[in-house]
Amino acid sequence: MTEHANDAAAAQNEQPQFALQRLYVRDLSFEAPKTPEVFRQEWQPAISVDLNTRQKELGGDFHEVVLTLSVTAKNGEEVAFIAEVQQAGIFLAKGLDAASLSHTLGAFCPNLLFPYAREALDSLVVRGSFPALMLAPVNFDALYAQELARMQAGEAQA
């Protein structure tokens, strides 16, 4: 009976594991270079959004994933504001094969971080006295697949 319990415990240890260990803001920035003049103009912004992710192995089975969202709002030709957040998390990813680990860190983790980054950006913009900014959801699985295809096409050409 004890041998069976040990085998079950060993099998459980071999199962893939994933857990969020910590969630935090790594960097936060807001600039409104044309205030207060921008508040006296008609508000017709052109919004551009840049999104980036990066990951770093922290040792063992721990990984840091950082999602960077940068938003630039122009009113006419002038920059009304620039807001940026780096939302990060430490994740435990154990027992995953290379492809699963890559997908987890490249798509699943950024998907978990995105709502926090979006809320932080919205809060920054509102505190700057601009209208609320609610970014549309992002399909990180599709972005990950596109990046994989681009990398594979680059390898095929080399």
Automatic annotation (TrEMBL):
**GO molecular-function terms, A-Z:** unfolded protein binding
Compartment(s) of residence = Cytoplasm
Q: Name one Pfam family in it.
A: SecB
* Subunit structure, interactors included: Homotetramer, a dimer of dimers. One homotetramer interacts with 1 SecA dimer.
Q: Which family does the record claim for this protein?
A: Belongs to the SecB family.
What's this chain's function? One of the proteins required for the normal export of preproteins out of the cell cytoplasm. It is a molecular chaperone that binds to a subset of precursor proteins, maintaining them in a translocation-competent state. It also specifically binds to its receptor SecA.
GO cellular component labels:
cytoplasm
Q: Which PANTHER family match?
A: PROTEIN-EXPORT PROTEIN SECB, PTHR36918
Might you name a Gene Ontology BP term for this protein?
Answer: protein folding
Quote the protein name from its UniProt record: Protein-export protein SecB
**Known HAMAP family for this protein?**
SecB
Q: Does the keyword Cytoplasm apply?
A: yes
Alphabetically list the UniProt keywords.
Answer: Chaperone, Cytoplasm, Protein transport, Translocation, Transport
